[in-house]
Design a protein that fits this description.
Glutamyl-tRNA Synthetase, domain 3; mainly alpha; binds glutamic acid; two-stranded parallel sheet; Arc Repressor Mutant, subunit A; three-stranded antiparallel beta sheet
Length: about 500
């Protein structure tokens, strides 16, 4: 049965979703599912100056790829909709008016020139200007707290620009509870009177966010640490509206792999890893950013890695399916301190998932790559051959893409030979030895891996020469380099005719 737990992911569509945002979405999702609750997606697009048209679709696509679907949101169970704040404009004005009427908010008419002048004057005195109780009391500010009701009405009627500000209560130590950080206390005298509603008829983030969390019956607000400074205002807004506040949990920052500070796109560019789930094209600049999906990561590996950026299960276990994560996830095990991002660990997770997938699954993923290389796989026999190949090389692959490099010699003869190893291993007497070997191979009837190994090794032994003298040139002939699985497995797989052809080609090209 559905519980009263309702959480939301509330991104602003200002660009592609950073992995920090994906982690916020993931923790919300895990928390919701663990408690049989509802995971809501709300798009906070009230700041028109930062709006990016393709960002909303990017967010939806990213959640889908990550396999953390929302239960409620745009075009899905629109019970509390609309879920785009720009479509809820009318709602917010009403709530701003309520705060005006109850004395929790006021109109402010200060022009940007006036505010700039205050800032400059404060700076000159070595102080910072804050729009708060202190400056209000000094009578420096132009707002409905000092102007007469008539005057205020006149200015509004005349179409003068105004904003609505929150009237922060004075002289109070505000005590707040955070599910991760415990009790936080703040002196309200240090807060400024934040703008709740702007002259353009749009609410600011603070007002819209609180009103929507209330109307959408959000029980827990789980979001990034960067929103912690907004928590006092949000708690006070709940008080002002006389609404029950949700519980808050502020997640730790995701930090740079090296150096100090928040992980940024620049770190990824510098160190060569994506910071976005999906590839993103900036429509204005044409800039393309890499994505985990396109870089070949499995969504499960990406999600498993993200889950550990700030949370741990308290055991040694590191591999968790999404179902396991739902079972184990607990806000109590989310840390307060920042989580260092480690690109190598991300690769490690990918490698682990590569190994846990079955040969059949990996083969299906490999087939399109083979097709691209013009390798035609038409029959079930061919497919089972690919499966065999996959099983012999999978261990060394991190990405599906790696499979081609690790196995191309199964499908086509080498187009080049590793020069360094040719020099070292292809000696003067090698062509004659290879010609002798060709005769031995011609006469082998049973071309299984075991039998060719017996026959060829038997012959080498009878000649009383080192194994390397034959085995290295043979590998170079078949693979082009000294790499790959057990050589006789390769021979069995490519068959007699192809083995002979490749040895002949090598004799021609390398001698
Ligand atoms: N729109 C805010 C963001 O972009 C939401 C913050 C919150 O969850 O309250 O992250």
């Amino acid at each position: 049965m559905e519980s009263n737990v309702r959480v939301r992911f509330a991104p602003s569509p200002t660009g592609p979703l950073h992995i920090g945002g994906v982690r916020t979405a993931l923790y919300n999702y895990l928390f919701a599912k663990k408690h049989n609750g509802t995971f809501v997606l709300r798009i906070e697009d009230t700041d028109q100056t930062r709006y990016v048209a393709n960002a909303e679709q990017y967010i939806i696509d990213a959640l889908e790829w990550c396999n953390i679907p929302f239960d409620e949101g745009i075009n899905k169970n629109e019970k509390f909709g609309p879920y785009r704040q720009s479509e809820r404009k009318e709602i917010y004005k009403k709530y701003a008016d309520i705060l005006i009427n109850t004395g929790w908010a006021y109109y402010a008419f200060d022009t940007s020139e006036q505010l700039d002048a205050h800032r400059k004057q404060h700076e000159a005195e070595g102080k910072t200007f804050i729009y708060n109780w202190h400056n209000r009391a000094k009578g420096r500010l132009v707002n409905s707290l000092v102007l007469s009701e008539d005057e205020v009405q006149k200015r509004i009627n005349a179409g003068e620009n105004y904003v609505i500000r929150f009237k922060t209560p004075q002289n109070e130590i505000l005590q707040m509870e955070d599910e991760i950080r415990g009790t936080i206390a703040i002196d309200t005298n240090t807060l400024d009177d934040k703008i709740l509603f702007k002259g353009d008829g749009m609410p600011t983030y603070h007002l819209a966010n609180i009103v929507d969390d209330h109307l959408m019956e959000i029980s827990h607000v789980i979001r990034g640490e960067e929103w912690l400074p907004s928590m006092p205002l949000h708690v006070l807004l709940y008080r002002a509206f006389d609404w029950k506040a949700p519980k808050f949990a502020h997640l730790p920052l995701i930090l740079k792999p090296v150096g100090k500070g928040k992980l940024s796109k620049r770190d990824g560019d510098k160190l060569g890893f994506p910071v976005f789930p999906l590839k993103y094209t900036n429509e204005q600049t044409g800039d393309v950013s890499r994505g985990y999906k396109e870089d070949g990561y499995f969504a499960e590996a990406f999600i498993n890695m993200l889950a550990f950026l700030g949370w741990n299960p308290g055991t040694e276990q590191e591999l968790f399916s999404i179902e396991n994560l739902i079972q184990e996830f607990d806000l109590k095990r989310v840390s307060k301190s920042g989580a260092k991002f480690n690109p190598d660990k991300t690769k490690w997770f990918q490698q682990q998932y590569m190994q846990t997938k079955s040969y059949e699954e990996i083969t299906e993923l490999f087939l399109p790559i083979l097709e691209e290389k013009n390798i035609v796989i038409s029959s079930a026999v061919d497919k089972s051959r690919v499966q065999k190949i996959v099983s012999s090389i999978k261990e060394r692959a991190i990405f599906v893409e790696d499979l081609w490099d690790l196995s191309s010699f199964f499908f086509e003869s080498p187009s080049e030979y590793d020069a360094k190893n040719v020099k070292k291993n292809w000696k003067e007497g090698t062509p004659d030895l290879m010609k002798e070997l060709l005769e031995i191979i011609q006469n082998i009837e049973d071309f299984s891996s075991e039998n060719t190994e017996n026959e060829i090794k038997g012959w080498i032994t009878s000649k009383e020469i080192g194994f390397g003298k034959i085995m290295q040139p043979l590998r170079l002939s078949l693979v082009g380099k000294l790499a790959g699985p057990h050589l006789f497995d390769i021979i069995a797989m490519i068959g007699k005719e192809e083995t002979i052809k490749r040895i002949q080609t090598a004799i021609e090209k390398l001698s």
